[in-house]
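Hey,
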Amino acid sequence: MVSQHKSNRLIFWAKSVLLMLFFFSGTAAFAHGDDDHKKKDTMVQVQGDDHHETVEGHSHPPQGNKPLQADFNDFPNLHPLMVHFPIVLLLLAAILAIANILFLKKELDWLITILTGLGALGAYAAGRWFHPHVHELTDHMQAVLDQHDLYADWTIWLSITAFVLQLVSQFILKQKRWAVILVSLVLAGAAYAVSQAGHYGSQLVHIEGVGPKGNHLESEETHEH
């Protein structure tokens, strides 16, 4: 009976986490709006060797036989592909840690440990191993990049600190409430830092124009040479 009760509680919390993930993914999809997904104004015409694309009234030259899905080697840098993992993982870990102040559930404790560990690893990978190398930036672009890097560094160190504190809280202090509160505060700081890093990163791409089609970026091969 005891094992069955624990199993039911584990299933309950697993379903709760899945619902949170669906909520965040649904919110992100809703934020894109309907305009990006309407295809009635988009028309692709293929006419032998003279094929061309007409998108919303604009004619574009043929693109050859380019595959629909780009290969990893086609990207000048893998930072944009890696950075989404710590954003989602750390935000969710912070929410669960705050909730665990009230519930003090072992199942939540394990989820927080796993999410925080993976989030810290993802933050370090995105900020160190896959950090893009830029060139020919204006002073304003460089200032925005400096802010992005500052919050990225805070994300790395706060997430690593939170992971270590979470291990101490779970395995040594056995979920003392004050320790759970401390972990949640550090994770909240990491969540804020990663959200700010994401904000400045989005500004670099969508406003300053750093990154699209490799603008102002050095490829990994170029940087190594």
